[in-house]
Design a protein that fits this description.
The complex is a heterodimer of chains A (526) and B (448). Chain A is α/β, with parallel strands linked by helices. Chain A folds into 2 domains: 256 residues, 3-Layer(aba) Sandwich (Aspartate Aminotransferase, domain 2), CATH 3.40.640.10; 114 residues, Alpha-Beta Complex (Aspartate Aminotransferase, domain 1). In chain A, 32% of the residues lie in helices and 10% in strands. A 7-stranded mixed β-sheet of chain A has the order 1-7-6-5-4-2-3, with helices on both faces. A 4-stranded antiparallel β-sheet of chain A has the order 10-11-13-12. A two-stranded antiparallel sheet of chain A has the order 8-9. In chain A, strand 8 and strand 9 form a beta hairpin. The radius of gyration of chain A is 26 Å and the shape is globular. The N terminus and C terminus of chain A are likely disordered. In chain B, helix 10 links the parallel strand 5 and strand 6. In chain B, helix 4 packs antiparallel against helix 12 and helix 7 packs across helix 8. The longest helix of chain B has 37 residues. Chain B is built from 15 helices and 13 strands. Chain B is an alpha/beta fold. The chains are: A alpha/beta (526), B alpha/beta (448).
């Protein structure tokens, strides 16, 4: 199946052969892996990384509240700062380095063009409260992205301000609460249904808003059990929160029946749009009966994940929920753009405000740049390539690993750990062994409905040759695990990463969340 | 398409391995009625880099860049100089294109800088522990109130009339939909508000801002004592984090939770986001904090390393019992913050803060020379309020027409309060120059 992936260029031998232990170095460094102290251990009084002019002497107007004593910040020169963070950066895996198949996170290529345009003078440096006459282009930019999002989803409205997917969930569920309140049904409809496979944010959001969360089981095909859903629907149900494609990487084939049943019961359909990348350009959620859906711009539209943020989570809304969208939003009056902010007289009953200013503009700019670069044709192609790549990985591994469900998947391939049964190797061990092969592991142990889940999302960004090498590596690992003799080796992984396995229990039992002079780590002092 | 590596030949080979005739077969679970035959109608096709750049340059040309105009706008977002190495560092692919450090062995870079960030935040705020950041200051403030409600098992927050109006609205929105009460003090233009008498046995927390939205610098020591006596928490919000280089930190005033907007350090104005929220508290409340936490530990070889920790508070473990639904932080903005603050160091931050105060003092002195303009503040850091002889909004528009970005009319943020109609909020940072102040003063004289 896969062509030869011998990249050894004819050389033989590895970095450490047999049981040989690599000798220690004086510095503790290992070539490009450089041990790096904390900034607090590097600084010296009198050093600085900035040159600022001497402040003129002025009469102090601080109401007698001048800080006394030292803050405790270390002093470093600019070269030290650059070296410090460069060394730290080299301890990270990243999309820029290779396959990052973290399921449900859509680790696709982050084009640098997006970074460039986001930094243009007149875009990246605008103040959110400049007079609207001086930010007409910025408002137009937001509206242009809003137009794409509405058109791609087939929804009439979008709330742009939520700061991340989970924040978008909060926005959408508040809009549902507001719509229920307007109908006089908020006190009565206190239940939110969510499949067992849902992201943890779904129940957390619903519970924060005072709803009781009722789990809906999956059927043997990994989809929502329609009969169980219908049985759970009633006059107490406010909404269903459903991810589609779902967290098992499957399209909910009975989605139309689900939305009809939900609406017939007087409830709303919240769609978690985390997996929109699988269907963008091919399916419009509006055609599925969705009432609101957040879009993670860092997933589908490639704004950088940045080590865990910042995100952006615009929420598209149906006509039924649009009147409750929070402040602010962009309005066009003739040729001029303006922004409806708190207190503006508007049609509808805005649910309030969720974030200062106008939303994650920097993310809007990057997402729009990505969208314009792809166009309607490229977005559809990207979704198709993402789905094809996931199916290719699944098909190439199905004889050595165990797919959790039959049939084609969407953008991610879900395996369970039954192929590891009685091998002494766990999903965690398998993932850690991938690190030594130069890969970021897949998502582990999620969704919860599958035992020892391994969720692989290759995205559309990987060349076939790179997928083939990845597949070759995973096949070899699976076969090695199944040989039944390699458990120790797996337990010891990773060996070649900047750190071996970390003691997470110790971290939680005795939390050290900050550096203090007294707890400065005496590394291998003895 | 430049971002898509698969060729048609690749696709054919891959489909053969999958055992599908066409990609359409892979979408067979999509109900027939929802399948789009062709691409989505009414949207343009893909563009080259050059065309995309041009489109954004056209949009940029319709805005007035603060770099091209005298600039004195603050009100929760501040224009500071960001050193070149900060922006370089956050664009390194190993930081930019990495994700949440779920696999600590290969994300020590992110984990270590977040641990350093947490430490810097505790030092600045004078608190014991800090998390790995929030979306921004405004959402962080609402999360702080929710945390205080959890800690005290009470449901009434008392909100200062000196809190940024948008922050206040976010707290009110959360209160309405999450089911607690938010009692808001009268708009505190003069900085004389006393909330002590309003605290009662149901109060979960008091939320104040320092310097206040109107710029006043205040000591909340007595308020903290009153809170603690009543079993409530004091939450101090700081929207201009550079002020902490010069001012007594909230921790020394007795604050229980401190929330800052961290944008001023390392992060550009960006038309309002993304920014970075700083969130710090006392050690005893650590397990009630929202957001991610990074902790120190050791690896299998005994080497120091860092991991995400105390995640049993979080949604992916606790689901409906989580302390918050938050599952991201502001990673890259936190990196910008921590790199900039590391460059500044102790001496640099203090000098930067002194410069800001000096520039604002100079602006205040000069603005008082404009006939009819009255400085409201006795105290301020780098931002203050002035009362104009007429409504501020049209004055700001008239100055904008002269390409002077003069400040924020308070009425924009408090449209429901007629008493603020003539108030203008002005900020001056280290970026303010004589070449900018002179046209502002001249422009004001002309327009008033």
């Amino acid at each position: 199946m896969a062509p030869s992936q011998d990249r050894s260029q004819g050389r033989t031998g590895g970095i450490v052969s047999g049981g040989e232990v690599a000798p220690a170095t004086v510095t503790g460094n290992r070539a490009l892996q450089i041990e790096e102290p904390l900034i607090f251990e590097l600084g010296q009084p009198g050093r600085t990384g900035v040159d600022l002019p001497e402040p003129p002497k002025v009469k102090d107007r601080l109401n007698g509240l001048r800080r006394s004593g030292e803050i405790g910040l270390p002093g470093l020169s600019e070269p030290q700062v650059v070296q410090h963070y460069t060394r730290l950066s080299q301890k990270n895996y990243a999309i820029d380095m290779g396959v990052y198949p973290l399921g449900s996170c859509t680790m696709k290529h982050n084009p640098r063009l997006n970074e460039k345009v986001a930094r243009f003078a007149g875009i990246g440096d605008l103040h959110p409260l400049q007079p609207v006459s001086t930010v007409q282009g910025a408002l137009e930019l937001i509206d242009r992205l809003a137009h794409w999002l509405k058109t791609l989803t087939g929804m009439p409205a979008v709330a742009m301000s939520p700061a991340a997917g989970a924040h978008g969930e909060m926005c959408g569920m508040m809009a549902i609460a507001a719509a229920l309140e307007a109908k006089g049904e908020r006190a009565q409809r206190r239940t939110v249904l969510a499949p067992e496979s849902a992201h943890g944010t779904n129940p957390a959001t619903a519970a924060a808003l005072g709803f009781t969360v009722k789990p809906i089981p999956a059927n043997e095909r990994g989809r929502v059990d329609l009969a169980a859903l219908k049985a759970a629907l009633g006059p107490d149900v406010a909404a269903i929160m459903l991810t589609n494609p779902n967290t098992c990487g499957l399209f909910e084939s009975e989605i139309i029946e689900i939305s009809k049943a939900v609406h017939a019961a007087g409830a709303y359909f919240y769609c978690d749009g985390a997996n929109f990348n699988a269907i963008v350009g091919r399916v419009r959620p509006g055609d599925l009966g969705v009432d609101c859906m957040h879009i993670n711009l860092h997933k589908t539209f490639s704004t950088p994940h940045g080590g865990g943020g910042p995100g952006a989570g615009p929420v598209v809304l149906s006509a039924a929920l649009a009147p409750y969208a929070p402040y602010p939003w962009i309005v066009k009056n003739g040729d001029a753009w303006t922004v409806a902010e708190d207190g503006a007289k508007v049609d509808g009953q805005p649910l309030g405000r969720l974030k200062a200013f106008h939303g994650q503009m920097g993310m809007f700019t990057r997402a729009l740049s990505y969208i314009m670069s792809h166009g309607a044709d490229g977005l559809k192609q990207a979704a198709e390539d993402a789905v094809l790549s996931a199916n290719y990985v699944m098909a190439s591994l199905k004889d050595v690993m165990t797919p959790a469900f039959e049939g084609p998947c969407m953008h991610e391939a879900l395996f369970d750990d039954s192929f590891l049964k009685d091998t002494g190797v766990s999903t965690l061990d398998f993932a850690k062994a991938m690190i030594d092969e130069g890969y970021h592991p897949m998502t582990m142990y999620f969704p919860l409905v599958v035992h020892g889940a391994m969720l692989i999302e290759p995205t559309e960004s990987q060349a076939k040759e790179d997928l083939d090498l990845f597949i070759t590596a995973l096949r070899a690992l699976a076969e090695k695990a199944k040989s039944g003799t390699a458990a120790e080796e797996f337990k010891a992984a990773p060996r070649y990463a900047p750190r071996r396995r970390l003691d997470e229990t110790l971290a939680a039992r005795k939390p050290v969340l900050r550096w203090r002079p007294s707890n400065s780590f005496k590394q291998a002092a003895e | 398409m430049r971002y898509l590596p698969l060729t048609d030949a690749d696709r054919r080979e891959m489909l053969a391995v999958v055992g599908a005739k066409s990609v359409d077969e892979l979408f067979r679970d999509v109900p027939q009625s929802a399948r789009l035959g062709a691409k989505v109608a009414g949207l343009p096709d893909h563009l080259g880099e050059l065309e995309v750049e041009r489109a954004f340059l056209d949009l940029a040309a319709k805005n007035v860049s603060p770099s091209q105009a005298p600039f004195f706008i603050g009100a929760g977002a501040y224009r500071h100089h960001v050193p070149a190495s900060v922006d370089y560092m956050i664009q390194r692919g190993e930081f930019l294109t990495s994700y949440t450090p779920y696999q600590p062995e290969i994300t020590q870079g992110t984990l270590q800088y977040l641990f350093e960030f947490q430490t810097q935040v505790t030092l600045l705020t004078g608190m014991e522990v800090a998390n790995a950041s929030m979306y921004d200051g405004s959402t962080g403030a609402a999360e702080a109130v929710l945390m205080a409600n959890r800690v005290t098992r009470r449901h009434k927050a008392l909100i200062s009339g000196g809190l940024h109006p948008q922050y206040r609205r976010i707290i009110e929105t959360t209160a309405k939909w999450e089911g607690y009460s938010a009692v808001v003090g009268k708009t505190d233009v003069e900085g004389l508000e006393d909330l002590i008498a309003s605290i009662d046995k149901e109060t979960s927390c008091v939320v104040v801002q320092n310097p206040s939205f109107f710029g006043h610098v205040r000591d909340f020591g007595k308020l903290a004592d009153a809170c603690h006596e009543a079993g409530a928490l004091l939450i101090v919000v700081v929207t201009e984090v550079v002020s902490l280089g010069l001012l007594k930190p909230p921790g020394e005033m007795g604050a229980d939770i401190v929330v800052c907007e961290g944008q001023s350090i390392g992060n550009g104005l960006g038309f309002g986001g993304p920014y970075v929220g700083l969130f710090a508290t006392k050690e005893k409340y650590m397990r009630q904090m929202p957001g991610r936490l990074v902790g120190e530990t050791v690896d299998a070889d005994g080497k120091r390393g860092f991991v995400l920790t105390l995640s049993t508070r979080e949604q992916h473990i606790r689901r409906e019992k989580a302390t918050s639904n938050i599952c991201t932080n502001a990673g890259l903005c936190a990196l910008a913050f921590t790199v900039h603050l590391t460059l500044l160091g102790e001496a640099g931050l203090k000098r930067l803060a002194e410069l800001n105060h000096a520039k604002a003092s100079e602006l205040a002195d000069r603005i008082e020379t404009v006939p009819g303009v009255k400085l409201v503040n006795q105290s301020f850091f780098n931002e203050f309020t002035v009362r104009l002889p007429k409504p501020a909004a049209p004055v700001v528009e008239a100055l904008a027409a002269k390409r002077i970005l003069a400040g924020v009319p308070v009425s924009r943020l408090l449209p429901e309060d007629p008493s603020v109609e003539n108030l203008l909020l002005l900020a001056a940072t280290e970026t303010a120059t004589e070449a900018g102040m002179a046209p502002l003063i001249a422009g004001l004289k002309e327009v008033l």
